[in-house]
Amino acid sequence: MPDFEYEKDLCAAFAETLPEDWTVYNETAGFDMVLVHETGAQVGVEAKLVLNPKVLLQICESHPQFHPPGPDFRAVLVGKVTNADLVGISKMLGITILTVSRKSKYVSSYDSNSRTGCKWFSRPKLPKTEPLKEQRWGDNNRWLDCAPIERLELPEYVPDVIAGDKAPVVMGAWKIKAMKVCVWVETHGKITRAHFKALGIDASRWMTGHWLKKGAVRGEWVAGPSFPADKFKTEHSRVYDEITFDLEKWTKEAGLA
């Protein structure tokens, strides 16, 4: 098993192995990665270079008696397993241990999640997502279905951020709305409080003379000296382009058409 220098390298290698019917949401809902199957099934993943008690505590469901939203499955992605006792404890907790290795001619097709052409493989296989009655006994024996009452709320767009970074850039619901504000201003040259209300974002943070400044017409605001569009474009270039492309769609959904 390779020794990864950084957790972000471990996460990037693992992401390469994901089958095409799984999508990875990096730095989402408090997890390093949330894997989402096309059926909607979710796997919450925390990454650590070495398996330790702290990461097991991180991945465990907090206050399960209150039934907070959560993923169907929980896993820890590690670069190295050095403590067999922690592996046993993780099994008792229902936490799956994921590992990544370089491919070789000895790789078992049973254990590999890998896409064709990927130089990495991960194990164990990701959980089956078919109805239980269609599965064979033992198909999911490495995965505990947490059966959450409510799954994690996912952002409207798949985040284009780095998983496992020491100082991760998070792309949550607020930032997506903020990017929509920027796209609206760039497209129309101005914005009003009514537009902010329709987009579901508080205007007070914007109307200070920095991000937005007063326009020529009362009630209209235009880009200010610190208008954050360029910052968002740098941090989330792909998502910003997608939001720009979807302008007509989310404009109609917000009732702004």
Overall description:
By secondary structure, the protein is of the alpha/beta class. It folds into two domains: 128 residues, Trna Endonuclease, Chain: A, domain 1, CATH 3.40.1350; 81 residues, no CATH class. It contains eight helices and eight strands. The strands form two sheets. It has a six-stranded mixed sheet, sandwiched between helices. The protein starts with 6 loop residues before the first helix and ends with a helix. The model has no long low-confidence stretch (mean pLDDT 88).
Q: Could you provide a short overview of the structure?
A:
By secondary structure, this protein is an alpha/beta fold. The chain has two domains: 7-134, Trna Endonuclease, Chain: A, domain 1 (3-Layer(aba) Sandwich); 173-253, no CATH class. It is built from eight helices and eight strands.
Keyword list:
elongated; Trna Endonuclease, Chain: A, domain 1; six-stranded mixed sheet; alpha/beta; 2 domains; 257 residues; two-stranded antiparallel sheet; 19% strand; 8 helices
* Beta-strand residue percentage: 15-25%
Helix content: 25-40%
- Oligomer category: single chain
Structural Rg: 22 Å
Number of domains: 2
Give the helix/strand layout.
Elements: H1 7-16, E1 22-28, E2 31-37, E3 42-50, H2 53-59, E4 73-80, H3 84-93, E5 96-102, E6 120-123, H4 173-188, H5 193-199, E7 212-214, E8 221-223, H6 229-235, H7 237-245, H8 247-253
Parallel strand pairs: 3-4, 4-5
Antiparallel strand pairs: 1-2, 2-3, 5-6, 7-8
